[in-house]
Amino acid sequence: MLESYVTYSVLPASDLQRAVEWYRDKLELEPERTTEGGVLYGTGSEAKIYVYETGNAGTAQNTAMCWLTPDIEATMAHLRERGVVFADYDFPGLHTENGIATDDMGRSAWFQDSEGNYLCLTQPA
User: Fold this and answer.
1) Where is the VOC domain (predicted)?
2) 3-class SS at 49?
3) Which range marks the domain in which residue 39 is found?
4) Count of domains in the chain?
5) Phi, psi angle pair for 79, to nearest 5°
6) In this structure, what CATH number is given to the domain that contains residue 10?
């Protein structure tokens, strides 16, 4: 049943205005809709991101959301020009080169938003 439904990501922000500015300035996303509690962004087809204000922002140490990209290097270069900083990892099971990890699923790169959420780019294999 759920395999045919559209999903959306929900991301916390400790400072919603700062997050809105970061998503605009770094990721070039404009709010699709503003609600009392947060901001909704469209990201392709029917995918959405809802950013809401809460004191719990930045506490998760896991990937919160990924974008699928056909060309990870080009996407990273564009975001780096806008000030996005990609993480480098070197521990068992995860090693990056120039910010990119490669495994049998594809190639991925991680960065944090202004609120400490871990976001990801993935170029599927």
Assistant:
1) 5-124
2) strand
3) 2-124
4) 1
5) -70, -35
6) 3.10.180.10
Q: What is the spatial distance between Cα 108 and Cα 111, in angstroms, rounded to a whole number? A: 10
Strand, helix or coil for residue 40: strand
Q: Is 124 helix (H, G, I), strand (E, B) or coil?
A: strand
Nearest to 6 by CA among 48, 62, 64: 48
Give Cα separations from 38 to 31, 34, 104 (angstroms): 10, 6, 36
Query: pLDDT tens for residues 71-118?
Result: 999 999 999 999 999 999 999 989 999 999 999 999 999 999 999 999
DSSP SS3 for 59: coil
Please tell me the distance from the alpha carbon of residue 74 to that of residue 57, in angstroms, as a whole number: 29
Task: Kindly report the pTM of this predicted structure.
Answer: 0.92
Nearest to 13 by CA among 82, 113, 119, 120: 113
